[in-house]
Recover the amino acids of this structure.
């Protein structure tokens, strides 16, 4: 992840399982609400977090990333995932 020091500070406060409003983040950072909100938007653009809701109901959460542990997946499922990925790539090329 290519995050600034301020963004890293916010990342450490956010949760992977619970949505948090900006009011639960501000007490733990040395800057105000407007900078915090700006940094959260930039982090969403970088694909690090998800934003849910609008206005006063806006909440933030760390984006879930699918990580496949090849040692724990049988060869059958690994082949299936690979085939699906290749079909997806062919579909994208066809669209272009």
């Amino acid at each position: 992840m290519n995050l600034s020091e301020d963004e890293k500070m916010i990342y450490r406060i956010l949760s992977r399982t619970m949505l948090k409003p900006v009011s639960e983040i501000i007490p733990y950072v040395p800057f105000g609400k407007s900078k915090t909100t700006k940094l959260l938007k930039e982090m969403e653009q970088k694909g690090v977090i998800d934003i849910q809701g609008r206005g006063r109901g806006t909440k933030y959460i760390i984006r879930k990333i699918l990580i496949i542990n090849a040692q724990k997946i049988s060869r059958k499922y690994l082949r299936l995932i690979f085939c699906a990925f290749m079909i997806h790539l062919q579909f994208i090329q066809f669209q272009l």
DSSP finds three helices and three strands in the chain. The CA atoms of residues 30 and 47 lie 24 Å apart. Helices lie at 5-13, 33-45, 75-95. The radius of gyration is 18 Å.
